[in-house]
Amino acid sequence: GHQIETAIQVASNYGIDWLTIDFNWAKYWPDANSDPQWDELDRAMNAISNTSIAVMVSIYNAPAWAMEASGPSSTWTSELALRLARRYPQHLLAFEIFPGANTVHGWGTTPNASAYVHLLHSVDTALRSAGHHQTTLASGLNPIEGTQSALGFLQSLYDAGLGTQIPIISLRIPSVVHPPSTSPDEVADYTLRFYEQVRQVMLANGHQNGLIWLTRFEWGGGQSAETQSQAEWLQNAYIAMRKQLYIGVASFYCLNDTSTGTNLLNTDGSPTLTLNSLGELIASESGHHTSSSSDG
Question: pTM of the predicted model, to two decimals?
């Protein structure tokens, strides 16, 4: 967005310490015979270079040339991760690999737990072998097609040998219409506390030392204009998540009008009510990492 430099500086000033950047592979590297188009990501990373913000890049939407019958190519995905790690060694500290891999939209074809586990281990091994330190996150688990389906996919990952080499399970929870305190047992669809159900699967598979990152969660109560209720919802969400020691980064998205390309500023460049509310929470407490997300 045209305010990305201002947004990043404001985020830093307010104490936000992580930024999630979605990297659309097919858009920025459409041709295997040419180099990736780095301009937009360079712009964001250059702005971040003057701050202490850490970056997680979320790789999604593999181009057709990088797809195989079982899903995205582990060789090409590893190559992309290595290129990103080499280009941005200072602030790029984590990779999320194909968020929503439990859905056709996220994986690019029929979800395949075995293929996904193989890809994750390939990327992680490639990074380590090349001396890079970035953390690899698994799944970006999305409950949009039903919580039991998503939890079943997570169990399939463990059955396929996910193990504990991948230290973090990531979640993407879209358009949450219930208050942050709503228990999964109270409603038929999903809630923000989907993370509690995910944690139970992790514990059942001996992954008690693993963490959960919410790499994207959205308020579903209407986004045409920012209101006090949006700000209160976000603040209550972070308060609820801070109580869970197994939750690390939590990255909110689309809590106001994002037509400017940022979810931190109004069109005139002033902080949103949501950002002010979040800043108050950060100032009053320390603990879990607070982050924002941006499309790359």
Answer: 0.90
